[in-house]
Amino acid sequence: MIVEPDLERRLARNPRRAAYYCGAVSSLAAALAARGVALIVRRGTLRAEALRLARESRAATIGWSAAYDAATIANDRDLQAAFEEAGLRVALAHDAPAIAPDETAAVRAHDDGTGYRAFTPYLTAWRSRTRATYGANVRYALVALDSNPLPSPDTFGAEALADADVPSEAKTLSAFDAYLAGPALAYRTARSVPAEAATARLSAALSFGIVSARTLLARIDARYADRFLLAEERASLAALTRALAQRDFFLQLGWFYETSPDLVLQTRMRAFAFARSHPALEAWRFGRTGFPFVDAGMRQLRATGWMHPRARLVAASFLCYDLGVDWRVGRDAWDDLLVEDEPALATGNWQWTAGVGADLAQYPRIFNPRKQARWFDPAGTYVRRWIPELANLPGAAVLDPAASIARPQLALPLFDGAAYAAPVVDHEATARAFLARYAVFTRPRDERR
Ligand SMILES: Cc1cc2nc3c(=O)[nH]c(=O)nc-3n(C[C@H](O)[C@H](O)[C@H](O)COP(=O)(O)OP(=O)(O)OC[C@H]3O[C@@H](n4cnc5c(N)ncnc54)[C@H](O)[C@@H]3O)c2cc1C
Q: What's the 397 CA to ligand 1 centre distance in angstroms?
């Protein structure tokens, strides 16, 4: 493996991710050592070091797993050209998705060499393909090459993970089996109810290649074959399969359409002017907007490096529509905090939420953060867990503290609600103002005057 300067800089910005990465590399080294193979580590620019390694090991073919974000795809193309110029064969595998982008693209009736921009037809194509396996193609050779030490967390200003938290394939698969035995059977609810903390928690392991999506899907299929499952439990397993298909969908979107990490997919929305900033941007970043569901999500992310998927939707919608701030600002802010490292999924999901990406919804998906809290955190458990200032507010008062604190019986020091921020915007007014601006922008040009 080559630790290149770009990667080092990226990891140094996010110590929690750096610690996870170093843990993943140490597990890989241990797994290889168990097969009698050493992991060779080099530091330097990718192109120069990769060519040097190929020469030293007298390799005839170089293989690696494809990437799905614009920057890495461009690097991969450079590298491929450099290897081919040097007379080496390149074998690029689509190892991250369960179904390779070319496989689904080939299903289209009029295949023009591009992929899908809408999830529903993609899912039909995805379901019709058989999942390949690559493992059998790998043979290990014994070559004695110099190696640098494994990357260590302190290089990135990070602390090493406790042994129990060091990720490995064996641990992830055993956790996933336990998940499939019970919690996965209620996944449909878990996906929307953040207090339950019962989604699969796979994003970091998948993004660092600790487990393969194909292995996970094979285990879900095996569980699905249990004849004693109830209809609702089957529906949950189907939803989990669909979530992994959604991952493949965004990866293929990156593969076929992402020419730059910042390019908006929908041509008609490229000129839509989101703001780059807002007086409440810092409040959003630090979970102090005065909207508890948004703030709980942002604080969970800051504290753990992960945010529940429902909270992601609501917090991202709040940034784009209530504050009118560009999705790229939000994506980059989360990138500094999330442990998972999958830029194609970050860009795809942020564009989708902001209504400029793969989703062709007629209206922007503006979530009402108070209603979302009432529907998906009715007892306020999630909000209380992440916002200590609100921990003592009783019952559903916690979901709309500004309104509740105004009530005299709750305006007691005991509840300490005053320490919590007042709402930074009037949601109803800002949502309607955004819709008005959006309607004018999307109206045919000659009707705008
Ligand atoms: C604004 C926004 C930004 C996001 N940014 C990222 C990101 O940077 N990296 C990332 O991996 N996911 C991202 N997601 C997708 C999703 O929220 C996370 O994958 C999920 O929260 C991870 O937790 P989990 O493994 O418990 O998910 P589960 O719900 O248990 O799903 C299992 C797996 O399915 C896949 N999956 C589920 N939902 C999606 C989805 N919407 N898109 C693509 N794959 C999905 C993931 O690989 C996930 O690990 C984002 C979603 C939104 C709305």
A: 30
Count other Cβ atoms within 10 Å, centred on residue 69.
22
Separation CA 309–CA 305 (nearest Å): 13
Residues 6+ apart with CB under 8 A from 201: 175, 306
Cα–Cα–Cα angle for 130, 251, 343, rounded to 5 degrees: 150
> pTM of whole model > 0.70?
yes
Query: How many H-runs (helices) and E-runs (strands) does the chain carry?
Result: 20, 4
Predicted confidence (pLDDT) per residue in 159-171, tens digit:
999 999 999 999 9
Enumerate domains of the chain plus CATH numbers.
Answer: 1-93 (3.40.50.620), 99-132+169-257 (1.25.40.80), 269-447 (1.10.579.10)
172 lines ligand 1 (CB under 6 A): no
Residue 28 and residue 315: Cα distance in Å, rounded? 35
Ramachandran sector of residue 113 (left: φ over 0; alpha: ψ -120 to 50; beta: rest): left
Tell me if 199 CB under 6 Å of ligand 1.
yes
Q: How far apart are CA 314 and CA 335, in angstroms?
A: 17
- The contacts of residue 392 (CB under 8 Å, 6+ apart) are 414, 415, 416
State if residue 313 touches ligand 1 by the CB under 6 angstroms criterion: yes
List, as one string, the DSSP characters of 61-83. Answer: EEEEE---SHHHHHHHHHHHHHH
203 C-alpha to ligand 1 centroid (Å): 6
Residue nearest to atom 51 of ligand 1 (CA): 349
Residue of 53, 96, 51 lying closest to 78 (CA atoms): 51
- Joined together, the tokens standing for residue 140 give 């290990």
Q: What is the pLDDT of residues 44-95, one digit of tens each?
A: 999 999 999 999 999 999 999 999 999 999 999 999 999 999 999 999 999 9
Question: Does the beta carbon of 46 sit less than 6 angstroms from any atom of ligand 1?
Answer: no
